[in-house]
## 1
Amino acid sequence: MTEETKETPIETPEETEETTPATEEAGEEEAEEEVKLYVGNLQYATNEARLREEFGQYGEITDVFLPSDRITGRPRGFGFVTFSTKDAAEEAIKNLDKKELDGRVIMVNHPRPRGETGGGSRREKEDMKLYVGNLSFDTTSDSLKELFEQYGTVSDCFLPTNRETGKPRGFGFVTMPTGEANAAIDAVNGYELDGRTLRVNEARGRYEGGGGGGYGGRRGRRY
């Protein structure tokens, strides 16, 4: 009589919690995206250290950039401050926009990406041409466009020159969608760029190559 052999059951691992690393919980938290702010109407003496001191009260700063004129090397009167978090950036806007820094009332807001249209409905509206007076001869169409692009889409920027000498005439024209143009008037009128206080309003009449008188209530200057 053969002895019945009992098979020993093969032990299989219990279906318990697998010891996988908890990467999502204990791992790195997803870094919050940095936020860059535009800072306008700066005193030329205001430097990077001064901006870090003032803006650093509201959070960690990862970068400060102060553009300078390519030819003269002089500050251009505006800059950019980048915060490590959105909350810090919003606090800086809340506390520093339209506040005085080094004797100047500064503007602090979110810069508009170049080429951003600001929404389809805006583009359906008629454009407005703005007159920009009291410009420095050092101001270029690029620097003027960059300033106004903080408030919307600039479709045209034109700085008239004297026909005989080729020198700038001290004023210019910027074309933007109506709603954005009105916001730019409020923000940029009285703003100092390249050492001159700008006068900004809606251009009236028709610009006839080299005229300029009657725009914004100012006479065209001759050089």
## 2
Amino acid sequence: MLTDTKIDVDLLGEIDEQKPSEQSSPGMSIPVPLNISQPVVKEWLAKKRANLRPLGTFFNTANFQVPPSAGRLTKRLPKNIEYFQSNYVLVFLVLVLYCLISSPLLLIVIAAAGGASYFASTKNTQRKLAIAGHEVSLAQQYGLIAVCSIPFFLWAGAGGIVFWVLGASMFFITGHAAFYNYDALDVPEDQEPLVGAIVEEV
């Protein structure tokens, strides 16, 4: 005679459910926009202004001498560039300003590009620009304005002006740094302190 045997099997435990990873892959992450910090720019300008040498020292004709040897020239160039770097930056800016003033057409193109960028930034704060359902960021708008401005800058002669400013700046800075006698300057950083005991001979 067969008896019915009932077997109860209890399944204990938890079934781990695989959840999709919440962390997105590095390739899908949205890049953080890089902004130039305004305090960094102010600090750089303040440092350059503090290191600006007096014009009387910068244009002192008594300190202009022909380097006696090539070795003295190689030592004079880096020291003068380091000591007068703020003055050289000022010379470069003066040349750029002179070119802008002497080229009114280039000023018009720069003003138009700046006005378009300002208009894009003000409109972006009020309402985001979208084309075919895709949002256009402010950086992309700036890039489009820059690309569209390139033909106008070339038409205004910006290429020749850039090469002229770079060439004139390199000529002036190299000539000044090569012929200016750095040894005639009283620079405290270059004065080596006396180390050791002084023995007096009797």
## 3
Amino acid sequence: MAVLSSKFVGTDTRLQELYGGGVYCVACWWFDGLIRRLCRSNLSRRAQKRIRASLSCTKQHVVGLLGFFIGLSIAVVASPAAVKVFGTQLREFWREASCGNSKLAYVVGKFFGFMPRIMLSALHFTGLFYTLVRPRTPLPVMFGMAFCYFFCTFGVAIIISILFYKSNSALIAVIVTMALSSLCGFSPSVATFENAGVGGLMYLFYARWCTGAFYAAELSAWGPIFDVSQTLDETGFTLESPATQLGYAAVVGTVFHIISWVVLMLSTKFKKG
């Protein structure tokens, strides 16, 4: 079954996106049905309330949950496309490099080649999201958040596409980027990491900065009306400038892309062929 799924995922970008979205939807449907059956069983009312309370989201955590789902959706969509940037052309890269062509020029050209695609994808996502959800976050901040998510996801997926064969790289990239997107500070929260003494670890995750920028932009609209200090203490997010937090995310994404270039230069998987 795993072999069939890996072959299916590695065939076409559209099939990869359909496969990833379908698996996620089926998992959510199965989990929802499981919870409904548990709540309809002979459990006591106190046990049912505990189950629902543990799975529900309080009002102050809705923004973080929304940022969590944004990261997951972008990871599912961007990863299958990102693995094709270098992963499917490693033989051509080493053939041209063996003829004396500049490897750095190839990498830089590829980078500027897929940057417009990232920008258009972020603009497309932002337009649909802004129209359907109507967030209070300014449009430039929303676009910057989507762009940073796409930019960082591409960096991680490119590294995976170089290290693994193309038959499995798309599926592995989706799983890894979804895992990284889940570390956005929603659950476990930033405050949980800080209480555990590893709060500095959250600075390494791009999803934390993207969701933090979204959180700060949303709560800034309610600051003059409501007291948001309690919410900030519970979640661990801050009202730091969204532009600054998105800048941190862009730095993390740049590091991922630099690592991908280094891995590409050192790779020997398709150097002979």
## 4
Amino acid sequence: ETASLTPTSNRVCTPQRICSVDAYEDVAPTYTSVRSCAQRTACTAVQYVRVQGTTTSDRQCSVITTCNTTMQYESMPPTPTTDRACSAVSVCTDGAQYEVQPFTPIADRICAGLTRCTANDFTSTSATATTDRTCTPVRTCSVAEYETASPTPTSDRHCSSIDVCSSQEYELMSATLTSNRVCLPRTRCTQWQFMVSPPSPTSDRVCQNLTICPSNTFESTQASSTTDRRCTPLSTCARGYFEAQPATTFTDRVCAE
């Protein structure tokens, strides 16, 4: 009603205002007043609609959350009606994990467990913050080798070839798992010696000095490389006999009547 009824005039009625879709009713109409409409708030590009407006209330906007790029990543992007969700970046456990994939503004860091070397392995490449450790099987020495350095958690076993005694040597000490074979040159008998015991793969040749026949003997058996000379006492001519032939180094004296 825009004009009241009087004794001389009729009341005047006017159609009530209708708020547009971009407006809401901020003052309700009465029988004698028009409805008041206000423009709805428009959220900006950095805002989202926190509360939707109604026919009688305005919409409410809030600033979209900004993730801390050093500690967070965007786990859910914002929409016109929802806020951005930020989550804490995963931290790989020191000594147990390494980083497979670094985090990005929209993805978390991916961690994986470090490989555990077994008792039969050693760590050939140490782990870093972004790489796994490499385990390598410990070397096994062959039957022709011995261990020169024991393996450790971070180093391999070292093996060396076992020495082979030559034909002019004998084995003084056998090889073990951790020591080399010891070879020594075989003794060579001199011209003044003979061989008492021949050599074997594990024993030396034994030499002995040749007997020197004294002056009252002669060499009845000559020495060889493996036997000693034999000395025999010289004959003494009996009474009534004379020395028909004198003794030599290798013969007895000859007596005759």
